[in-house]
Amino acid sequence: MPELAEVEFYRKQWRRGLKQKILAVELHPGARIFRGADIAALRRALTGAALLNCAAHGKQLFFRFSGPAWLGLHLGLTGRLRVEPPRALPGRHDHLLLRQRGQCLVFSDPRQFGRVRFHRGRAPPPWRRNLPAPILSNLFTPAAMDRFLRRHARSPLKAVLLMQQGFPGIGNWMADEVLWRAGLLPSRPAGSLKPAEAKKLYRELRRVCRGALRTVARDNGDPPPAWLFHRRWRRGGQCPRDGAPLRRAQIGGRTTCWCPCCQKEGV
DNA sequence: TACAATGTTTTAAG
DNA sequence: CCTTAAAACATTGT
Which domains does chain A have, with CATH numbers? Predict the structure, then answer.
């Protein structure tokens, strides 16, 4: 599920627990999402601690607690964060519950591709440092994007857009949306773009991120009606721009949707 | 039934 | 050491 904007939406769910103490931590010790994490230390440190800060970076979520202690969450493909009444009972896929006075913060993930990380100490944990430049930050420059594209010059554009080291927060539907709006075939080698094409890719990339944040992150709703998003899974889906039947294929290991009419091979 | 699903990580090959 | 591609992970829904 979660790409950039959905992750931001889920961050805002748990944000409702800011400044409040964790009265109890409940978790499923064997759950796969805890792989590699020190569960005993997590439980010990967070019980009685206050949630001081929350931040989203691409698809990653960071929560800082008094102590100090850090919780890193990745939602994988099916992870969600929600807020329940204080005494709510955990459902089948609710693997982590942080009970507070006013509410209970819940992390659920049926498929468990998601992940929980824990770190104790004042300094930010290793997994919180040296993160790639956020796409909407001023560190994400056209030159930086071009460098990344050239570094993966032989891979299809679609696959490169999915790389979190270069495009943090971009996932399957956002990548298709960006390429559709930029008029670029997903199968184009990333190193084959002419300057004008790279410029267009950059602009549409930022536009899609902004648009998704404005709509999806607000209330977990849908992107704007004219976006490819609404047609891409539909059988017999048509291009919102020219009505041409959409094509689908596996590119970069993922199902990819594009319009053969307005997304062209370079000269 | 069999396959695919808004994602990473590991493994292996070039 | 770097890039690239494919398989693996676990569960649900069509």
Answer: 4-128 (3.20.190.10), 142-258 (1.10.8.50)
What does the pLDDT look like over A16-45, one tens digit per residue?
999 999 999 999 989 999 999 999 999 999
Give the three-state DSSP class for A17.
coil
Per-residue CB contacts under 7 A with strand B, chain A residues 157-176: 162, 164, 171-173
- Nearest residue (CA) to C1' of B6: A1
Judged by C1' against the alpha carbon of A156, the nearest nucleotide is: C4
Which of the residues A11, A59, A99, A181 is marked catalytic?
A: A59
**Reported pTM:** 0.96
Nearest to A224 by CA among A243, A208, A246, A202: A208
Whose CA is nearest the C1' atom of nucleotide B9?
A113
E strand residue ranges, chain A: 24-27, 51-57, 60-65, 69-74, 80-84, 94-99, 104-108, 115-120, 247-251, 254-258
Q: Average of pLDDT values for A119-144?
A: 96
Question: CA A74, A19, A106, A124: dihedral to nearest 10 degrees?
Answer: 20
Residues A205, A236: Cα–Cα separation, whole Å? 26
Tokens found for residue A112: 């468990």
Strand C proximity: list residues 111-130 of A with CB under 7 Å: 111-113
